[in-house]
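Quick note —
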Amino acid sequence: MPYRRLPTTDKARLRALETALNKVNEISVKNIPFAKHSIEELQSVKNQFENTLKHYELNINQQSDNNKKYKEVFETARLYLSHFMQVLLFASERGEINGGIKYYGNLNDFGGRIPSLTTEREILEWGKIMVDGEQKRVREGGSAIYSPSIALVKFKLEEFNDAAIFQQNLKRNTLRTFEKMQTLRKTTNEFISQLWTEIENHLELEAKTAEQKRELAEEFGIVYVLRRKERKLLQQQKTEIKTEIQQEEKTESVEEPVAEIREEAPARPQFVQRDLFQFN
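Predicted structure written out below.
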């Protein structure tokens, strides 16, 4: 026997609710195969699921669209910061930095190499160290570094920080709606299961055969699935029925033998020999 399968995707859940609701609107109230109070609940569940799904998809699209801009700002901030650090290290190697690089955290521990700047946290942390250190060094009489200047680096870092905060807010919104959708998926499936059971129980009394019951139930959105053996058996039955029909058609198309009608050859004219010289 085929078994019914609950929806496994959001579109399938929404389709199941819409199919049942559309069928309810097509028939009279007395023919509805479930309780009347379930109609309002069906409409409510459908609206809530549809609205939450739209909100969830909107948050995903916003996060995805903003992610491109976020990556551009990320790369720009990393580029300006790494270039400033390179200029600083080169100037320190030439002895042009008053007091060396003691103002810049533990940069000296990297042996003249630029530390890792591959994550958001690393860029913001090292950016703050570079800005504070450069400003302190200049206040104490040191010459400012240019190309890029620390003011331009600071501007790019602040721009990146704003973009990072906005992207984090979008991620939180998406996560919040995702968790809400997870809960709603469970409750929606429970409602669909209860509704389908009620429909099947009602049709059990009206339908004459199991096949008729499934056909009526499918009109309300219930999905039935055949097992592998059942699919093979059904295919075999269809093949046998098709073969029988073809044989019957072939038998009916055979005509009864028609008696052969022979056409007689036209009679040859008979000539009577007469005595032309016969006198009366």
